[in-house]
Amino acid sequence: SIDVDLGEFALFASDSIVVRAEATVQPWAASPATSRGDPVRVATATGGVGQVQVNDAAAIVSGVEFAPGSRASNSGPLPVASLPDTVAVPLPAPPMDLHEASLLTETVGRVEQDARINELELSAGAVLELASDASLLVEGDLIIRSGALLRVVGDSHLVVEGELDVNDGSIEIEPEASLVVHVGGDLDLRHASVLEPGGNAESWVSELDRVKFVSLQVRETMPRWRIRGRSVVKAECYAPTVDFKLQGRATLVGRV
Predict the structure, then answer these.
(1) What per-residue confidence (pLDDT) applies to 86?
(2) Are 170 and 150 a contacting pair, CB within 8 Å?
(3) 145: which of 3, 69, 76, 178 is 20 to 30 A away, CA to CA?
(4) Number of helices (H) and strands (E), helices first, in the chain?
(5) Which of 166, 91, 106, 95 is nearest to 137 (CA)?
(6) pLDDT tens digit string along 179-215?
(7) pLDDT value at position 2?
(8) What are the φ and ψ backbone dihedral angles of 156, each rounded to 5 degrees?
(9) Torsions phi, psi of 7, nearest 5?
(10) Is 196 strand, coil or helix?
(11) Rounded to whole angstroms, what are the CA distances from 106 to 109, 110, 124, 131?
(12) Stated pTM of the model
């Protein structure tokens, strides 16, 4: 038997993967796996012919599609390697329960302990820090405006039951910190930064999955997740039941 860990894939989708226009999926230059020559692994849950598409001037550099061993065709855009006939894609684990945490009635500059708030908007220039190991529940929408900053210094969870909208704002995670963001509604990162302090797409971090965006099952319709514009995001996205798109000149260093 073959032991498959979803964390080994750069892209794994329930239904289909489409890379189009001038988009590029490529090895991260800062990763030791690149110097080892590891492939960029992509797959869909069923592995059918045509479910991985690379169109126009797009490319998956060093890409290998993993598909069930019973698949006969190798006519797709990538070489095909064998997988077991089924790959389990479990729903995300529920987030920690913060509904009994202290209720914030107004925006503060620093959250010292687990807390909850009805809705939260960080206006231009605002800074909100989650203190060491403090977590926050936003029962509605979280909006981070241009120039606003959410800073994480410990091991925190951010639970957004509504929509998460970051427009030219930043989420900054200290090198030794971690953040799990559970999103119940739509996710829209436009010209957003989700990085370590002073980081960029090329700077090294030892654990990309220390930052995770995870879907939260709170509504019947399929949420839309968009990372677009000039966004630079270092994170793992685990969202089996969303419509996910990386658009424009956005850069995602991590896995989906």
Answers:
(1) 64
(2) yes
(3) 178
(4) 1, 27
(5) 95
(6) 999 999 999 999 999 999 999 999 998 888 999 999 9
(7) 40
(8) -125, 160
(9) -65, -10
(10) coil
(11) 10, 12, 17, 17
(12) 0.91
Handedness of CA 195, 200, 204, 209 (dihedral sign): positive
Position 129: which residue type?
E
Residue 4 has pLDDT above 60, yes or no: no
Q: 10 Å Cβ neighbour count for 101?
A: 18
The answer to whether residues 246 and 20 touch, using CB atoms and an 8 Å cutoff, is no
Sign of CA dihedral 79, 81, 85, 90: negative
Chain centroid to CA 130: how far?
20
Mean of pLDDT values over 36-40: 87
DSSP characters for 56-73?
Answer: TT-EETTEEEEEETT---
Q: What is the pLDDT of residues 202-211, one digit of tens each?
A: 999 888 899 9
Distance in angstroms (rounded) separating the CA atoms of residues 204 and 249: 21
Phi, psi (deg, nearest 5) at residue 28: -80, 120
Per-position b or e across 217-231, b if 16+ CB within 10 A of its CB: eeeeeebebbbbbeb
Place of tokens 């220390």: 210
CA neighbor of 52 nearest in space, from 88, 23, 80:
80
Cα maximum dimension of the chain: 60
